[in-house]
Amino acid sequence: MRALGLDPVTDTRRAFAGLRTAMARPGTVQRLPAPADHAVLAALVDHKVCLSTPDQRLADAFSREGRLVAAAPPEADVVHAVGTPDWDPTDLNRGRLVEPSEGATAVYRVGTLADGTGDGTRDANSTDGAKTTVRVRGPGVPGERTATVGLPADHLRDLSRVGADYPRGIDAVFAMEDRVLALPRSVTMEVT
Amino acid sequence: MKPTRTGVRTVSEPDCGESHASDGTTGEATGESGGTPVEAEDVDGALAALDGAGLAGYNYAYLDEHTKREVRRAVLKAIAIPGHQVPFASRPMPLARGWGTGGIQTTLSLLGPEDTLKVIDQGSDESVNAANIRRLAERTADVETTTDTTAADVIQTRHRIPEEVLDRDQVLVLQVPVTDPLRKVDPSDAANRRRHAHANYGKMWVHLYENVVEYGEIQVASRYPVTVAGRYLMDPSPIPRWDVPKLNDADNLFLFAAGREARIYAVPPHTDVEPLAFDDRPFQVERFDAPCEACGATDTYRTAVETDEGDRLVVCNDTSFCLKRREDAGLAKDHHLDRDGVDWGPGTPDADDTDQEPATNGGDRT
């Protein structure tokens, strides 16, 4: 993924390490190579999974390495969104009851990202003003955590509705600059 | 002929070219398998002649990047669905399946040059398998290795969870021979996957009930079935019952990897893990009559070993912690942590007395 300015071995490993911790500790901000959404996708995507992305440069970079299998959001395994997407979380693939791990991973590039400790800030370049705070409980969360992400409240409410179908569901990763925060399907979230 | 990466890359897949770019050596790694002929008198001489050169052509951390992505995707889905067995494309490794191939693939996908690795086999750092896995990681992933549980970032283990409390930055990778706890009640994988889909675990409850009828208590020596996050029944790998409570509400991440069965599953930190048991037949850990004969510990899992002189000693199974206890008999299992109230399995020195109750009650009853 040199086309994206990421080292294919060390940066993807660091991206995975940050993502792994973010998934295991939902609602915490973790650091990884910037831009975080590109690093996450570089760590996850190859020809074995279908990708939906609005970012043409990213699609080209994957395509040049033979790693792009493009798909529409409802069919994709990894769904990338820049800002508020035009699809609905309820449209995405939630997997089957026998194999829920087939459910999609949604990677959002957002303009605001913060956890309860205040780690993370607003991206000054962002023009998207949406900002929603969610309360998170479940595996990986001792008690309760709060997280603030730059998406409309309706979108996050839809995301929590998808989780009602557990273990079917989708796993959400929010990225801004060099930070990620994950909300896997195992957590229950309450939009405030 | 140059050394090749035999058996590691599958040739049918399009080559992304990226692993080549990074280590700068793979481009010329072509040719058939068979290795490099070495002229030497004996095996030691042959190994010495190969030292260093044998790694040419291998990607960082032995696995190619495509394999790592496959393992990493499975690890992330496993964390997102605690206790669910996520299938992954398990690769052939340079040792027989069933000897920790899943654990090695997972460990090597996690490791970076700044990490420190510990490998244990039934509590011992010095078994042949543990030493070899450690050496593979040391040579290919350029990591530090240690036998000290508290100094490790990643710990790969076969059939034990260390006695010392694991901290939030540590990851425990457990090798798993049998992934499905239901297999002992039904050999059909398809039927068991349907049972997991619907959380239909009646057959396991009947199995445990029959156990109680036969023995008066639940007699499951290892692979004790647990419920993870209130949803999935999970096989915690063949750890003794002693280690099962450590999975509950831990600070660290547990990854379970089975290379032969090509499944990865996980228990994230701060997740409820409950051993199956009945209200009147509670879960019990192993009972020991005497303290460790080497360090005097009464709060560790002990096994019998035979010494070179032929004596039979009952000693701590976790050798690294036993050695520390011989220096300092009062060393707590959470001595390295700066917070109190860490609960880690049975008999943690500063744990509440109530934690000991199941064992005591069970002992009275039977």
From TrEMBL, chain A:
<keyword id="KW-0456">Lyase</keyword>
<dbReference type="Pfam" id="PF05845">
    <property type="entry name" value="PhnH"/>
</dbReference>
<dbReference type="InterPro" id="IPR038058">
    <property type="entry name" value="PhnH-like_sp"/>
</dbReference>
<dbReference type="GO" id="GO:0016829">
    <property type="term" value="F:lyase activity"/>
</dbReference>
<dbReference type="InterPro" id="IPR008772">
    <property type="entry name" value="Phosphonate_metab_PhnH"/>
</dbReference>
<protein>
    <submittedName>
        <fullName>Phosphonate C-P lyase system protein PhnH</fullName>
    </submittedName>
</protein>
<dbReference type="GO" id="GO:0019634">
    <property type="term" value="P:organic phosphonate metabolic process"/>
</dbReference>
